[in-house]
Design a protein that fits this description.
heterodimer, A: mainly alpha, Rna Polymerase Sigma Factor, Chain: A, Arc Repressor Mutant, subunit A, 12 helices, 0% strand, B: 98 residues, 2 domains, elongated, binds zinc ion
C-alpha cells in the first residue's frame, strides 16, 4: 500500500467511525447511502488525479505541499522531478545533444540539485510566475553553471600554459586583404583605443576584462578569482564600459567607427 | 604629457600587466553602443527572468514591458544564455501540451 493510499484509508476509517457514516451504512441499500459512497469514491478519484496531474496544482498548492512533510511532499517532489527532467533537454539543446555520453548523468545530477535548491529556497518564491517556471529557472542556472565550467576547462586546457600565458593576439593588423593605408589607419586607431583603455580602466577592471573577454572564464569563477560576486563583477564591467564610452565620445570617436574600420576589407 | 598620463606611465612601469589582445579590445567596443547609464545587476535579472520569459511566451511584449531587463540581456552574455534556455523550455513544453 502506497503512502497516499494509507492516508486515504485512514480518512475512510475515520469516516466510518463517525456516527453519520454508520447510519448511512446501516441503510446500505438506500439511494442516499449509494450516493454517499459514490461521492466519497469520486472524492478519492479526484484526489488521486490531482496528485498526479501536475497541471492542476496551483502555486499555493506547490508551496504548501513541498513545505509540509509526509506523503503530500513526496508526491509533489516526484511530480517536480518529472517536470524538471522533461524541461532539461530543451534547456540543454543549444549545448548538448541527448546522444552525447554525459547527457543522462548531467540531467540526473541537475535534477537532483534543483530539487534540493527548490526546497531550500521555497520561502523566496514570490509567485511572480508559475511555480514550475521558477523551478525551470533554477534548473537552467544549475545546468548552465556546470556547462560553462566545463566549456572553460576544456578551452583553457588547450590555450593556457602553466603560467597562464595568453594566446598570441590574432593578426588583425596583418590582414593580407587590407591595403597599406587601411593597415596604417587600423594600427593608429587601435593604438589610440589602447591608450584610452590604459588610462581609463583600473587594474581590477582590466583584470576582469582579461578573465572574461580573453580567457572566457565563467562569471561565477571570475568573480571568485577577483574575490567578489557576480553582481559586483557585472557592475565593475558596466562601469568600465561607461567610462570608456564617455572618454571615447570626448575624443570624438564612436565605437562603430572603430569597428567599421576593422570590418572593412 | 599631463599628470594623469604620467602617473599611469609610472604605475605601469612598476606593474607590468598583461596586454589585452586586439580581439578583446574590439569585443569590448562592440557592446559600447548599447551601454546605458542605468543597469540592473544580474541578481535582479535572475529574480525577474521567469516572469519576463512567461510574458514573452504569452504576449511577445516582454521587451516593451520590461525594457531594463531587455537591455541587460543585450549586455550580459550569461544572463542572456539563461534567458534563451528558459525560453526554449517554456516554448517547447507548452507545445508538447497542445
Ligand atoms: Zn547579467
Amino acid at each position: 500500500m502506497g503512502v497516499l493510499d494509507a492516508l486515504e484509508h485512514e480518512q475512510l476509517e475515520s469516516h466510518s467511525r463517525s456516527p453519520g457514516f454508520k447510519s448511512l451504512c446501516a441503510h446500505n441499500n438506500e439511494p442516499l447511502g449509494s450516493l454517499f459512497v459514490l461521492t466519497f469514491l469520486s472524492y478519492i478519484v479526484t484526489r488521486r488525479y490531482n496528485s498526479t496531474n501536475m497541471l492542476t496544482r496551483s502555486n499555493e498548492a506547490w508551496v504548501s505541499d513541498l513545505g509540509t512533510s509526509g506523503p503530500a511532499r513526496e508526491a509533489a517532489l516526484e511530480d517536480l522531478r518529472a517536470i524538471v527532467q522533461k524541461g532539461l533537454p530543451y534547456a540543454l539543446s543549444r549545448w548538448l545533444s541527448p546522444d552525447q555520453p554525459q547527457f543522462n548523468s548531467l540531467v540526473e545530477e541537475v535534477t537532483q540539485e534543483t530539487l534540493l535548491r527548490v526546497l531550500d529556497q521555497l520561502s523566496t518564491f514570490e509567485g511572480r510566475s508559475q511555480f514550475t517556471t521558477w523551478v525551470h529557472k533554477i534548473a537552467v542556472r544549475i545546468a548552465l553553471t556546470e556547462l560553462r565550467r566545463k566549456r572553460w576547462r576544456d578551452s583553457s586546457l588547450d590555450e593556457l600554459t602553466e603560467n597562464e600565458e595568453l594566446p598570441p593576439p590574432p593578426g588583425l593588423l596583418a590582414d593580407p586583404q587590407a591595403g597599406p593605408e587601411t593597415s596604417a589607419e587600423r594600427a593608429d586607431m587601435l593604438a589610440r583605443v589602447r591608450r584610452i583603455i590604459e588610462e581609463e580602466l583600473t587594474d581590477r577592471q582590466r583584470q576582469a576584462l582579461i578573465l572574461l573577454g580573453v580567457q572566457d572564464m565563467p562569471m561565477e569563477d571570475a568573480a571568485r578569482r577577483l574575490k567578489t560576486n557576480r553582481n559586483a563583477l557585472y557592475k565593475l564591467l558596466h562601469d568600465a564600459r561607461l567610462r570608456l564610452k564617455r572618454r571615447l565620445s570626448m575624443e570624438d570617436i564612436t565605437p562603430n567607427e572603430v569597428l567599421t574600420l576593422f570590418e572593412q576589407k | 604629457m599631463n599628470i594623469r598620463a604620467l602617473i599611469q606611465k609610472i604605475k605601469s612601469s612598476f606593474n607590468h600587466h598583461e596586454e589585452i589582445p586586439n580581439e578583446a579590445v574590439l569585443g569590448f567596443l562592440r557592446v559600447l553602443e548599447s551601454v546605458r547609464e542605468e543597469d540592473a545587476p544580474c541578481d535582479e535579472i535572475y529574480a525577474r527572468i521567469d516572469e519576463y520569459v512567461e510574458r514573452e511566451v504569452d504576449k511577445k511584449d516582454a521587451a516593451q514591458l520590461m525594457p531594463l531587463i531587455r537591455e541587460h540581456l543585450d549586455m550580459c552574455s550569461e544572463c542572456c544564455e539563461e534567458y534563451q534556455a528558459l525560453l526554449d523550455v517554456l516554448e517547447k513544453t507548452s507545445q508538447d501540451e497542445k
